[in-house]
Amino acid sequence: MKKTILLILAAAALFVGCGKKESDNGKLLIYAGLMEDHASMAAKEFEKETGIKTEFVRMSSGETLARVRAEKENMSASVWYGGPIDAFVAANEEGLIEPYKSPVSEEIPAKFKDANGVWTGIYVGYLGFVGNKSILEEKGMEMPKSWQDLLKPEYKGEIVTAHPGSSGTAYTMLSTVVQSMGEEKGMEYMQKLNGQIRQYTKSGTAPGRMVGLGEAGVGITFLHDAIKYRKEGYKDIIIAAPSEGTGFEIGGVAILKNGPDLENAKKFVDWALSKKAQEMGQTVGSYQFLTNKDAVPPQEAAEIKDTKLIDYDFEWAGLNRKRLIENFSQVTKTSAPKE
User: Fold this and answer.
1) Is 0.85 surpassed by the pTM of this model?
2) Residue 255: which domain range?
3) Exposure winner among 225, 252, 293, 339, fewest CB in 10 A?
């Protein structure tokens, strides 16, 4: 009788073990700074390939930075995926990043990764202008082609941009202007530009959609986002880049310090840096340039490949992020929108 009971218990244990097989791979929560459809696709594909239950929360860079600061002693997520690496630099200064040198990072050129493994780039995007052709023609305005053009009287009340306090896109704009013009003149420019702005949005992707919908004539955004909206059917969208030169983002991936799933986080970083994972972005309308040396960039990015870029200093931008945003809010008398 005792032998029979032991056999039954062993069989039950085996059955329970088999039932838990999939969940034994663990789980992963990601804070995502890239487009929601891109983040969703990545989470599903990674889960399908690894069996790791993967969820994500989509937030702009400023929101993510605020969240991980608040969770410093009890981090909920394990990975920060996408968005300009300025914010990653700022987070690392506050002890919020767990450095990790993925073996796959050997396929990423040095200029697209931190030497100490704090962050590794997954894409590159150029900052520029998006315009609504019909609105501009109707009002007798040309598409702006320089930072100085945005200050012309005809654009007053026609420009939408995100707020640098919440958006990594908008912080790239602020840092670009300051790095190009010097801090004093740069802040003077931002004060003048503030008088032209119709609305500050929370997210850096919102201006492109608003312009496409005809809610504004001009927006400041990353050009690949504008291309995405145009391909989605907003046919009036036109794009331009500042003739003086523009800033750009390296979208990064990093591991959050004290996150609950370190080993799975490392697996995700390895996956995100691969040629296969990076090339998947274009299937959901992400048209950035890619960082893996073997990855083929989307054809849609070809039209902006000759954009004039400034020598954008990401480290400086990250270390001075808090101060520049505070100065911006002071001179413009604005704060980041809550919704």
Assistant:
1) yes
2) 25-124+249-298
3) 339
